[in-house]
Specification:
Blueprint (H helix, E strand, L loop, with lengths): L1 E3 L3 H12 L6 E4 L6 E2 L2 E5 L10 E4 L4 H10 L3 E2 L2 E2 L4 E2 L4 E2 L4 E2 L4 E2 L4 E2 L4 E2 L4 E2 L4 E2 L4 E2 L4 E2 L4 E2 L4 E2 L4 E2 L4 E2 L4 E2 L4 E2 L7 E4 L4 E5 L5
The chain binds acetyl coenzyme *A.
């Protein structure tokens, strides 16, 4: 396995991969000054030749940059699923997605490619999570919620059932979302209110 991005987020992924007894050969990073992370070699991601015999994970927290980097590579992407996460029956997890410790994903939920389901996040039944979404630590998604591409659900946010959250939206930490959220909206507070319409740049 090779990770792209040598950050704090990568450290958490390395920890999951170690617990699953995967071998990580090295990490790549655009910053030539980073040589090491958590005991692993970091190589400058310049003129890197994609290794078709390896699996990669893009270990970059920004949803937009993770999308850009993953689209540039012609490689196979793997998964990192913490052994202390709980996945219900009929849950599907897309390639490049990481699921942190304590996360719970209940039955019939679909999670797209290159998502982050962070520590102790709870995603209930029949949710549809599109590609490049980040569900932050301790966020709660009730049943039958759709989350569009690239959206970031902040730490500890709660979304009541049957809602549709648009693409490239941001839900602030601790928000309580009680109605649908349009694309690119930034929502904070309880009850959640739109404070601006962003441009998808995090
Ligand atoms: C392992 C990890 O670390 S995973 C990372 C998890 N990260 C998160 O959960 C971060 C989530 N991000 C937030 O909550 C951010 O505050 C955002 C994205 C909602 C807003 O950020 P910005 O666009 O920079 O907004 P800014 O800080 O200028 O605040 C704008 C207004 O919204 C308010 N506001 C911002 N965030 C929140 C929030 N979470 N709840 C309530 N109000 C908020 C501010 O007080 C401010 O109000 P004012 O205009 O009355 O002064």
């Amino acid at each position: 396995m090779i990770l792209i991005g040598a950050s704090g987020h990568a450290k958490v992924i390395l920890d999951i991969l170690e617990k699953n007894e995967f071998t990580v050969d090295y990490l790549l990073d655009a910053n030539p000054n980073i040589k090491e992370l958590a005991g692993y070699n970091v190589i400058e991601d310049k003129d890197h030749i994609d290794d078709i015999n390896q699996e990669y994970i893009v270990s970059i927290g920004s949803n937009l940059i993770r999308k850009r980097v993953s689209e540039q590579r012609k490689v196979k992407f793997g998964w990192a699923i913490h052994p202390d996460s709980i996945l219900g029956d009929d849950v599907s997890i897309g390639q490049g997605t990481v699921v942190m410790a304590g996360a719970i994903i209940n039955p019939s939920t679909q999670v797209g490619n290159h998502c982050i389901i962070n520590t102790s996040a709870s995603i209930d039944h029949d949710c549809e999570i599109a590609d490049y979404v980040h569900i932050s630590p301790s966020a709660t998604l009730c049943g039958t919620i759709e989350v569009g591409e690239g959206t970031h659900i902040g730490a500890g946010a709660t979304i009541i059932p049957n809602l549709k959250i648009g693409k490239w939206a941001t839900i602030g930490a601790g928000a309580v979302v009680i109605k649908d959220v349009p694309d690119y909206a930034v929502v904070v507070g309880n009850p959640g209110r739109i404070i601006k319409i962003g441009n998808g740049e995090e």
